[in-house]
Specification:
This protein is of the alpha/beta class and about 290 residues long. It has 8 helices and 17 strands. The two termini are about 40 Å apart.
């Protein structure tokens, strides 16, 4: 196997000690039979992920989301929580990180034997058509994607279309979320009652290609007039035409992609999927468990 290990490097002892332990275990488990490269998150490049049989991410969910856009659908990913909250209240929840230093050796053996659970994660994408005729697609987003005015003190103005419905909105921006990403930003962006109502709607109609949409800080009269444009669980493309001097698309809270007035941005959940390995439960089952706890 050709394996890449990408790790979080923040000079905290818990991560450094864990990384050293991980290196020693991998050396013992792989020997000369498998090739293993180690790269810090800050130095990794897209080319580093080409032709890999496995990518091991050592850190937290932020480490994974920050580099997941480099990983194609065919490459399995193993998440290893470098600082689990179960060991330290100040640690990482690591929703996508089903392994840890404590369980890594057994988990890695399950990868080698083909016994790991394979989860196919949907991802969001935004396709931007500029006024000059250029088209480009943003990096895929595992959790969420924001479209808003680059000046957060100014309203986000845009014409919105989904299916046969269309309207003009003034909001603080549109927040999109995958089904698995709903516990990240989306849940904290709206009231608990609004979130539970939206989640109940989604649980009755799940399916491939669906995603959440939420217009932040939308005026009450606009919510009433166009409920479909305020919050939705949909498989239809959401298309906006910008009425902002300058706006941006931000996938998973990382790289910003800017656009000008008149640009058209189309969002859907048809980006290449991500293949995530887990070992004790599927990621869907883990999401249900986390919501029950909260």
């Amino acid at each position: 196997m050709n394996i890449l290990v990408v790790y979080k490097k923040n000079f905290e002892e818990v991560h450094d000690v864990g990384l050293q332990t991980l290196k020693e275990m991998l050396h013992r488990l792989t020997g000369d039979e498998h090739h293993v490269d180690f790269k810090p998150r800050e130095h990794v490049r897209r080319a580093d992920f080409i032709a890999r049989d496995l990518v091991v991410v050592f850190g937290g969910d932020g480490t994974l989301t920050s580099l997941s856009h480099n990983i194609d659908a065919a490459t399995p990913v193993m998440g290893v929580n470098s600082h689990p909250r179960i060991d330290d209240p100040g640690g990482s929840l690591g929703f996508y990180m089903d392994s840890s230093v404590t369980t890594f050796e057994d988990d890695f053996r399950r990868v080698l034997s083909g016994e790991a659970l394979v989860n196919t994660l949907p991802r969001l994408q935004a396709i931007i058509d500029t006024t000059s005729g250029n088209r480009y697609t943003t990096d895929p987003a595992m959790n969420d994607l924001l479209i808003a005015n680059t000046h957060q003190y100014a309203p986000s103005k845009y014409h919105l279309r989904r299916g046969a419905e269309q309207t003009h909105q003034h909001s603080s921006g549109l927040l999109f979320s995958t089904w698995l990403g709903q516990g990240a930003w989306l849940r904290n962006a709206m009231s608990e009652s609004d979130f539970l109502s939206l989640q109940q709607q989604a649980q009755t109609v799940q399916g491939h290609g669906r995603y959440f949409v939420f217009a932040r800080d939308l005026a009450p009269e606009q919510r009433t007039a166009h409920p479909w444009a305020w919050r939705a669980w949909t498989d239809l493309d959401t298309t906006i035409t910008s009425d902002m001097h300058r706006g941006y698309v931000v996938p998973d809270g990382w790289d910003e992609v800017h656009f000008n007035r008149g640009a058209t941005i189309t969002v859907n959940a048809h980006a290449p999927t991500l293949t995530l390995l887990t070992f004790r439960t599927t990621i869907e089952e883990k999401l249900v468990t986390e919501f029950r706890k909260s």
